[in-house]
Amino acid sequence: MNEPTQHGSDTPLYPIREVSRLTGVNSVTLRAWERRYGLIRPRRTPKGHRLYAREDVERVEQILQWLNRGVPVSQVRELIDHPGMAEPEVPPPDPGDWPAQRTRLISAVEALDTARLETLYTQSLALYPVSTCVTELWAPALRELEERWNERLGDELQRRTLESFLRTRIGMRLYHGNANAERPPLLAMPLPDDPGTLWLLLVALLAGDRGLHVWLLDAAPPLGELPLAVARLGASGVLLVGSHAGRNDLMRRQLPRLVEQLDVPLGLCGPAARIRQAELDGSGVATLGDDLGEAISRLQALLQTT
To answer: Which residues fall within 8 angstroms of residue 38, CB to CB, at 6 or more apart?
Structure first.
C-alpha cells in the first residue's frame, strides 16, 4: 500500500494509485475528470506525478455521490463549487445522457459496429466509475438486447460479436489488474450449459474494479474438477454466473454436493440466483442476487469472513 506523502505544512498527499484504492475510482477516470472537466486539481511533483490532498479525496467522494444520484458528469462541477444552487433538490438527470448512450450502444451492437462500441466503451469507463457504467449503460442495454435476440436472423452473430469485443477489453483490464493483485484468485465462470457469457464478463469487470484477483473461465469445467482447480490455483472462492434458471438436477443436487467438496465459498449471481434462491437456501451455495454491484459486495463480505 502506498503511504501518503508529507508535504509543506505536514499535509498528507496521496499518489493517484492510493486515491484510486480509497475511493474505488480508477486512475484513468481520475485523470479524465481532471483534464476534461476540471473536477479535481491535484498538485504535481517536480517529475509531474499527481499528488492529492485529503480535500481532493473528499471531493472525489462528493463527485461519486452526485453521479450515483443520476447527475451527468458535465454538471457536477457547478453543483460542487456552488452548493447553494444544488439545494434543496437535485437537478434532474440529463434525459439525453444514459438513455441516449444505451440507444447508441444497442444500435452499435445491432450494426456490428465495433468502432462505435470501442468509443462508447472507452468514453464511458473514462468518465464514470465502473459500477455506474455497468448499472446505467451495459447491464440495461444487455437486458434489452436479450429481449430481442433469438427472434431474427443475425441475432446470434450480434451476441457473439459483443462477447468477443468485451472479452478482449475486459480481459486486458483483468490482466493488468491481476498483475498487481496480492490476493488469491477468484474463479469466475458461467453455470454449466448457460449462455450467460456476457453477464459473466460484466461481473468480472466489476469484481476486478473492486480489487479482486479474477481468474475468468469462459465455460465451466466438469464440476468434479473444480475442487482440483481450487487447490492447484490456490483460489479464494468460486463464483458462478447464471443468466437462466439452470437445470433442476444442477441446482438441487450437483451444486449442494459441490459445496461439500470445496474448502472455499461457492457463490451464484445473476438471474439464476434470484430464481433459485428459495431452493438453494440452506444448501451452502451463497445466492448473491441479480444486481451485479450488490452481488460483488456480498461476495467480498463472504470472502473476508472465510
So the answer is: 77
